[in-house]
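Researcher: We plan to redesign the surface later, but first we want a full-length starting point. Tokens attached.
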């Protein structure tokens, strides 16, 4: 894997050069084996937490891990284009707009002993800016190459904190163009619900049940690209014990293996569909 600056990453994307790299500041990774018509993203996969923030943080490492989305990059790592965050959302949240990307409190608990200095804030927000510069270049290249693009925005959530039965998979569609893409979203939800998972885990799937797809990653791409669909795809943390932090690698691997088939199928269905040009594009 190369270590590259943002300008070099963007240059390679514009030239459609396959590569795998970590950003110069180690804040995100990007892998492009081929310039395929779909992108996989895992913005909350990261767990890194800048050392200069350690003593000022009131949340333990476990508390941070509990709210992150571990293994979401691993679930899609075999696909041609994968971009993923390396840093914890507790440092800055790639799924929030810049003005709210740095938490003051998190899930009802104050995050910092003392307010962050402007220098610390600027360092974190610079990483946020760099990530979205690359996202912009990447989506632009795929949309220009194929006329449209589909992005699989992978997340996970803690099912044990809910006091009702919740689905294994949740698809958030509140901020996509449902007139154009509602049928594609329904199809994706059905594919996810048909998975066969180990250990007796049942796979169920619902749309806008636990989350509605209000993340910045989806909103940013949707607002800046006319013909790109982002599918905010959440798996409940059935692949780990969210209370102890133990991972179940056999479940992660099963999800990865089935997504190897399902994601390309969904991308093909999207690109074969004429729903994208209902507005005359």
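Model: Full-length starting sequence:
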């Amino acid at each position: 894997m190369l270590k590259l600056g943002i300008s070099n990453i963007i240059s390679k994307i514009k030239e459609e050069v396959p590569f795998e790299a970590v950003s110069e500041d180690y804040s995100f990774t990007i892998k492009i084996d081929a310039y395929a018509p779909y992108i996989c993203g895992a913005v909350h996969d990261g767990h890194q937490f800048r050392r200069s923030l350690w003593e000022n943080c009131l949340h333990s490492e476990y508390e941070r891990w509990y709210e992150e989305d571990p293994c979401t990059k691993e679930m899609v790592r075999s696909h041609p284009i994968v971009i993923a965050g390396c840093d914890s959302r507790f440092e800055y949240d790639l799924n929030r707009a810049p003005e709210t990307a740095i938490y003051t409190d998190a899930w009802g608990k104050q995050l910092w002993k003392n307010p962050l200095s402007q220098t610390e804030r600027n360092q974190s927000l610079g990483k946020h800016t760099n990530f979205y510069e690359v996202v912009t270049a990447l989506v632009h290249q795929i949309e220009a190459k194929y006329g449209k693009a589909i992005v699989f925005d992978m997340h996970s959530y803690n099912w044990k904190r809910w006091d009702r039965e919740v689905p294994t998979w949740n698809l958030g569609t509140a901020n996509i163009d449902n007139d154009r893409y509602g049928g594609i979203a329904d199809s994706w939800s059905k594919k996810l619900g048909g998975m066969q998972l180990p250990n007796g885990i049942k796979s169920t799937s619902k749309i806008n049940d636990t989350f509605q797809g209000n993340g910045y990653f989806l909103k940013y791409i949707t607002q800046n690209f006319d013909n790109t669909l982002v599918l905010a795809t959440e798996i409940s943390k059935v692949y780990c014990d969210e209370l102890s932090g133990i991972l179940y690698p056999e479940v992660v691997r099963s999800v990865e293996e089935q997504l190897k088939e399902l994601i390309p199928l969904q991308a093909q269905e999207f690109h074969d569909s004429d729903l994208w040009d209902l507005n005359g594009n």
